[in-house]
Structure formats: C-alpha cells, structure tokens
Write a structure and sequence with these properties.
There is one protein chain. Helix 1 packs across helix 2. The chain has a seven-stranded mixed sheet, sandwiched between helices. Strands 2-3-1-4 form a four-stranded antiparallel sheet, covered by helices on one side. By secondary structure, it is of the alpha/beta class. It is elongated and about 65 Å long. It contains ten helices and 14 strands. Bound molecules: S-adenosylmethionine.
Length: about 290
C-alpha cells in the first residue's frame, strides 16, 4: 500500500489544537501522528499524519474537523516513495568513527576493523548513536584524556545510550557510574552495557544531576563527563566542583558555540580552568580541569 505524509504548519497554539483534534479524530485508525517545531524564532510547528492507503479520504475528514473547530489550516499531501523505511532508516545510521572508537548498529558489525574499539548501539529510545556532534566530540576527548591522565574513577552524567560510559570503560578498564534523569534511558543504558561486555565496569542509575546517594558515595571522580545542555551544566558547576578530585578533568558538552564562553565562565568561577574546546558543527565539547 502507498504511504502519504499529510501535513499542516501553523503557529504553536493553532498547531497544538489541530494535533489534539487529529489525535481524537484518528484514534481508531492507527495513523502515526507527529508535531515538530520547524521555526524556533517564529514559534511555528508542523503537524503530520502518516497514512497508509486512502490519503484523499483522510484529508477530507481532517479538513471537515478543522473547519468545524473554526481552525482553517491548509493540509498538504505528500505521497512518499515506496521504500522499505526500516532498512532505509538503519542505512542512514552509518558507523561513526571518533578516534579509536567505532560506534555502529548491529547491521554494520562487518565494518569493524582490527584495532577498532567497536561499540554497538542501536538507534533506540535513548540519545547517543554517535551521530551527534556532541557525542562524537566527547568520544574524541575521552581518548585524549585517558591517554594523558589515566583516570581511575569516572562519572558519566546524562548517559543516554551509555555510549560514552562504555567507550571509557572499554578503553581504560575503570569503574564508571552512568546516570540519567530518564528511567527509560537508564534501562537502555543497562542493556547496551551488557551487549558491549562492559558490565564489570559500568553501573547505571537514574538520577537528576548529583541527586543520588551512590554518586556521593563514589566521589571524588578524576573524570566527569556530562553531555547535557549549557543551562543545566551552568547550574551544576558548584556541585561539579564538590565531586571532582583535585587535578580532575571535566568533559562538558551539549553546548552551542555561542554558549561556550558563558559555560567556561560559570566553571572558572568554581576554579576550573579551560584546557581545550572541540567544535563539531554548531556544537562544542569543552575540557576543563581543576
Ligand atoms: C544529549 S544526551 C547525551 C547522551 C550520551 N551521553 C551521549 O553523549 O550521546 C543528554 C542526556 O542527559 C539526560 N539528562 C538531561 N538532564 C539531566 C540531568 N539534570 N541529570 C541527569 N541526566 C540528565 C537526558 O535524559 C539525556 O539522556
């Protein structure tokens, strides 16, 4: 059967109302619905309905419902080519190289070369397949810091898929406490740790920031990695200072280039000094030391 993407764009409030309307209207049809921000500056969202089959009939039902609700929105119909989307989406996730690390999906096991430190991660419910500039930047920095500083006790805050915790553990063979605010991510992290034979070193727990007794119990850390976002990272600066060992290193990421100086300033205020910044696309990864 042919797949179509029906979509409408509108300012946030209107788009949210249309989405709620479609959710109720198509509840029994099983269509996939999505709502995504497409223009941050003007607060414009796009509402999508993926229809397998008679798209014209769905467009007219959607139009009638919108009209009745007094929401006039043009709905566009984009027929999608007949492609095996599952293989296609996996195809898009090519293996990623960062230093010695190769992050790949199960479908690319044959791409591993001698000397690679291969980490198998499926695109799933947690962030971190290696494709994002922040993850790749962190992987590169982990390799450099392990080579120069030989850390012995590490924390990976905001572990997501656990890609960084696994990389660090497999490279340095040291204990890594991996934490995430999201229990789904923690579950995915545990599965990936097992899959990548890193259970002897990595333990994953659900925690917001430093709020977990095990984080305090294992402190101080001579390496803390946190690929979160600039704003929470700035808020965590003083707690980072309390949990880092003297001479310890921080790898901070999830920071846009324009936010870099503010993050460095927040950490300089806690007696960290900036060592190096890696830029990948619009994202930076920062190495600070205390
Ligand atoms: C950008 S992802 C990074 C995932 C992985 N570490 C990587 O580098 O690919 C950020 C992760 O941090 C988690 N997170 C966000 N805020 C957090 C907080 N305050 N404490 C712990 N985890 C947090 C999110 O749930 C998400 O899984």
């Amino acid at each position: 059967m042919s797949l179509s993407r029906l979509f409408a764009t509108a300012p946030r409030e209107k788009a949210m109302r249309a989405y709620a309307l479609f959710e109720a209207l198509f509840e029994d049809d099983g269509f996939a619905l999505a709502i995504t921000e497409i223009d941050e500056a003007n607060d414009i969202l796009c509402v999508e309905i993926y229809v397998d089959g008679d798209a014209a009939g769905v467009v007219s039902r959607a139009r009638n419902a919108l009209d009745e609700a007094g929401l006039s929105l043009p709905i566009e119909n984009e027929p999608l080519p007949d492609i095996d989307w599952v293989s296609k989406s996996l195809e898009g996730l090519k293996p990623v190289r960062a230093g010695r690390f190769l992050v790949h999906g199960a479908h690319d096991r044959d791409k591993r070369a001698t000397g690679d430190l291969a980490i198998e991660i499926e695109a799933g419910q947690a962030f971190g397949t290696g494709h994002h500039g922040t993850t790749a930047g962190c992987l590169e920095m982990i390799e450099q810091i392990v080579r120069r500083e030989h850390p012995v006790n590490a924390l990976d805050m905001g572990t997501g898929s656990a890609v960084l915790a696994i990389a660090l553990a497999r490279l340095a063979h040291i204990p890594v406490l991996a934490t995430d605010i999201d229990p789904v991510a923690t579950r995915v992290a545990r599965d990936n740790v097992r899959l990548n034979a890193a259970s002897a070193w990595v333990r994953a727990v659900t925690a917001t920031g430093f709020d977990h007794p095990e984080i305090a119990r294992r402190a101080p850390y001579d390496l803390i990695i946190a690929n979160i976002l600039a704003r929470p990272l700035m808020g965590l600066a003083s707690a980072m200072a309390r949990h880092i060992a003297s001479g310890g290193s921080l790898i901070l990421s999830g920071i846009l280039e324009r936010q870099r100086n503010a993050v460095i300033a927040a950490y300089a205020g806690q007696r960290f000094r900036h060592v190096r910044t890696i830029q990948r696309g619009e994202w930076v990864t920062i190495h600070m030391k205390r």
